[in-house]
Design goal:
The chain has a single domain, classed as 3-Layer(aba) Sandwich (Aspartate Aminotransferase, domain 2), CATH 3.40.640. The longest helix has 20 residues. The chain is flat. α4 crosses α11. It is built from twelve helices and eleven strands. By secondary structure, it is α/β, with parallel strands linked by helices.
């Protein structure tokens, strides 16, 4: 199906009063998402928060089914937390690094992630090595392969950096990680919702994402994919009565699904809203959304090229159908998120 622009605009109350370009920050919610959040809050106000959660259990649980459909994984491999950074952190700090281990990351990496790398470098004595870029400014897969040794324990990259506009070759990196048996963490905060994401095809072991950007969900929603193959070997840095059972006086048992990375108290209205937002995006089709994004990008490049004094330097590669930004326009270190 193609996107019915009139319908999409009618579904979005914000377009009646603003021209909004900050989708990479927080997009305008559709009316369906807004209604789902407000309706649950009103139910909590009428009958109580615990009672409302019990009554709307099916709607709350749908976020795991919707998330798994979006990413092509199992519902048991999805955890829902308050934002993408916390999702990423909960996974990263669960990894059992030891002194001498190496982390390989991208030159245009999200600054919060890089701070975490530096912290474990300081605390545990791991090394953080930046993979050189190719001629397009993307992670060079050839350079990545040349950097591998037995000390590399994690490849961790941002799929679509927020202030550069490039798309890193996530699938090609996944092929290297799988072949070498190296854990692979993908920050998909800026790609989920605007490009199709299939964790099986990409080959990542872990993926973090947010609801507020291209999925057009409420703020304060994030989710994490953890593959079943890696799940049992990871214990989150924080546990509570949701993530684990106090099985005897001196023992506890961590739950056997990705919800071990969640905590007991959460915002149930926004979990419902995130599920509705994912279903709404799936209704239009992620491939169709990507085609719309690409057509708008092409239109922008074309019209900018017609203006005297403006040179458009980006191009499209075979990795993804989004524009790539020339390497000389990228920061030479961790990027700041806009």
């Amino acid at each position: 199906m193609s996107i019915d622009l009139d319908q999409a605009r009618n579904d979005t109350p914000g377009v009646q009063e603003t021209i909004h370009f900050n989708n990479a920050g927080a997009a305008l919610m559709p009316q369906l998402v807004l209604d789902s959040v407000i309706t649950h809050l009103q139910l909590e106000a009428r009958i109580g928060g615990y009672e409302a959660a019990d009554q709307e259990r099916a709607a709350i649980e749908d976020v795991y089914s919707a998330g798994s459909e979006l990413l092509n994984c199992h519902p048991e491999e999805i955890a829902v937390v308050e934002n993408a950074t916390r999702a990423w952190d909960m996974l990263f700090y669960a990894l059992p690094f030891q002194k001498g281990d190496r982390i390989l990351t991208a030159g245009c990496e999200y600054s919060s992630n890089y701070i975490a790398y530096l912290q474990v470098q300081k605390q545990l004595g791991v090394s953080v090595d930046v993979i050189p870029n190719d001629q397009f400014g993307q992670v060079s897969v050839a350079a990545l392969e040349s950097m591998l040794d037995e000390r590399v324990k994690l490849i961790s990259i941002t799929h679509v950096p927020s202030s550069g506009g490039l798309v890193n070759p996530a699938k090609e990196i996944g092929q290297v990680a799988r072949r070498e048996g190296i854990a692979y963490l993908l920050d998909a905060c800026q790609s989920v919702g605007q490009v199709p994401i299939d964790v099986q095809d990409i080959g990542c072991d872990f993926l973090s994402a947010t609801g507020r950007k291209y999925l057009r969900g409420p703020r304060g929603t994030g989710f994490l994919y953890v593959s079943k193959e890696k799940l049992a070997s990871l214990e989150p840095p924080f546990l509570d009565i949701h993530a684990a059972d106090w099985s005897s006086r001196d023992t506890y048992t961590v739950r056997d699904d990705a919800r071990r990375f969640e905590n007991w108290e959460t915002n149930f209205s926004t979990k419902i809203g995130l599920a509705v937002a994912i279903r709404y995006a799936l209704h239009w089709g992620i491939q169709e959304i990507q085609e719309r994004v690409v057509s708008l990008a092409d239109l922008l490049r074309s019209q900018l090229s017609e203006i005297a004094g403006i040179v458009v330097t980006d191009s499209v590669t075979s990795h993804d159908e989004l524009p790539q930004v020339s390497h000389d326009l990228l920061p030479h270190g961790p990027n700041e998120k806009i």
